[in-house]
Design goal:
This protein is mostly helical and 362 residues long. Among the domains are: 105 residues; 119 residues, Serine Threonine Protein Phosphatase 5, Tetratricopeptide repeat (Alpha Horseshoe), CATH 1.25.40. The chain is built from 22 helices and no strands. 37% of the residues are buried. Keywords: Repeat. Pfam families: E_motif, PPR, PPR_2. It comes from Liquidambar formosana (Formosan gum).
Length: 362
């Protein structure tokens, strides 16, 4: 590409972006046959890469990297990072890692992008290996790095998650030793990591130190306590939660349903739903139906199911099945037959392998 033509790249990109028109494919604009440049302007390359990063088809921008390699050019750190992002958005981990390994100066941002790419594709071992390499290189992780390490330790296969169950405590120790001031995002991920590894006491320590406790963090704490049968502490966190959404309510109700003290907890779940300030939606009633089904409480199950039917008559077939199973377990076969006739009349079918709880926002 000749220098005169190179100067048209940036205006073309800007015009295309402002007019919301797609850029021509790279082989039509940036890499014409038998056309060479000596030193392409960094700003033009940066604009071109950013355009493809933001576009619907980032993979089209990979031709730019091919062009750079063909000419034997050495892009600066900024261009290298954009090429890295481009390959990650194109789901080409191999090319992204090749770009990362060839960088002369690997910044914290470069490490974070590559680690994030591995985690997105559930390559947890590779992400943790890169974290160790980062520490060996002398680069100091920031809050985003710590957040990703914690996420990596709780994703992937159950066996791998189990082997990573001690990572939360190690990361927490590293955070305390570092200059990183935990923000709401990092604290929330840390709480979630502790809860998922069964260390609800450590999770509570982090939770109590948070200046602003968001609903996600509160829900994690409630679920953690409920899963271990510590209902009173879960209720305390719930009562302290200012902004409550359906997920928080469901965490409480499902926690009641899992409690060993079935009869008392079933009643508490029922009273809890009735005490909700706003009218409960079908998700809340479905969670209560789950509790009643597990406890064999036919009367409450019927009331909860009818509420679900009223709010969403045809959208939750699992609620019909759950009520039918509860009635059948209690030997109320006449009621089972009536319910099945109702399902036929409403053309509700029992789908194999579906999750009966689900969500519909109704």
């Amino acid at each position: 590409m000749k220098n005169g033509r190179l100067s048209t790249i940036k205006p073309l990109i800007i015009s295309s972006t402002h007019n919301h028109k797609p850029m021509p494919p790279p082989n039509q604009t940036f890499v014409p046959e038998n056309d060479y440049i000596s030193h392409p302007a960094a700003t033009s390359l940066s604009s071109a890469l950013q355009h493809y990063i933001n576009s619907e088809f980032p993979q089209h921008g990979q031709k730019i990297h091919s062009h750079i390699l063909k000419l034997g050019l050495r892009p600066n750190t900024n261009i290298c990072i954009k090429l890295l992002i481009l390959h990650l958005k194109s789901c080409c981990l191999r090319y992204a890692r090749q770009m990362f390994d060839e960088m002369h100066q690997r910044t914290v941002s470069a490490y974070n992008y590559m680690i994030s790419g591995y985690i997105k594709h559930e390559k947890v071992e590779e992400s943790l290996s890169l974290v160790r390499r980062m520490a060996f290189s002398g680069e100091k992780p920031d809050g985003y790095t710590f957040s990703m390490i914690l996420k990596a330790s709780t994703c992937g296969s159950s066996a791998l998650s189990l082997s990573c169950s001690g990572i939360g405590k190690q990361v927490h120790a590293q955070i305390l030793k570092s200059d990183v001031e935990p923000d709401d995002v990092l604290s929330t991920v840390l709480v979630d990591s502790y809860v998922k590894s069964g260390k609800v006491g450590y999770a509570r320590t982090v939770f109590d130190l948070m200046l602003k406790k968001n609903v996600i963090c509160s829900t994690s704490m409630i679920s953690g306590y409920m899963n271990q049968g510590i209902v009173e502490d879960a209720e305390y966190i719930f009562n302290k939660t200012v902004e409550k959404d359906v997920v928080v309510f469901n965490a409480m109700i499902e926690g009641y349903s899992k409690s060993i003290e079935t009869a008392r907890r079933s009643l508490e779940a029922w009273e809890f739903v009735l005490a909700i300030p706003e009218k409960p939606n079908s998700d809340v009633w479905a969670a209560l139906l789950s509790s009643c089904r597990l406890h064999g409480d036919v009367e409450m199950a019927s009331i909860a199911a009818n509420e679900v039917f009223e709010l969403n008559a045809n959208g939750r077939p699992g609620a019909y099945v759950a009520l039918s199973n509860t009635l059948a377990a209690a030997g109320k076969w006449d009621n089972v037959s009536e319910l099945r006739e109702l399902m036929k009349a409403r053309r509700i079918s029992k789908d194999t392998g579906f999750s009966w709880v689900g969500t519909d926002g109704g």
